[in-house]
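Before surveying the methods themselves, we first show a specimen of the format, giving the amino acid sequence and backbone structure tokens:

:::
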Amino acid sequence: MRIVFVGLFAALSYVVFTFLQIKLYVGGDATSFHLGNAVVAIGALLLGGFWGGLGGAIGMTIGDLLDPVYVVYAPKTFLCKLLIGLVTGLVGHKVLHISAETDRKALVFKTIAASVCGLGINIIADPGLGYIYKRLILGKSAADAIFKLNLLTTSVNAALSVVVTVLVYLAVRGPLKKAGLLPKIGR
């Protein structure tokens, strides 16, 4: 069953990233506003960090591979999105134990905290790895300019993704649990 959910989150992250984005071009490079990271964080909260992160990483990497502007960034995307999932899942399930939480207010707080941690790490990792990649590997001298724009879009994406993650996770957690479709994590 878990592999089905990984596939579902891969498909969802691909669709959300590819078709629901606002792309900003800087020279021959681009960055974008999107909610693909929210899908990764939701997957991590529902499936656990590795499986949710893997689904999101696969979907968003496929999105990069099919876009001529982003194709060179596919390896970085895979690592960053997997990292979002791992951190969100680690904080949510291993540190805060959201799977066992029954108090609604505590669940909201823990969901926000896990989402902020996972998406917050991406604010550092995505622009940072992107800068190193562009500067050292691709030899782009425009790395400084795109770094600032990438930092801005990544920060906005993270803030919006936290809100979406919390709202969607809290909306689907109960019905999935009631239907017996919520995997047991962190026990």
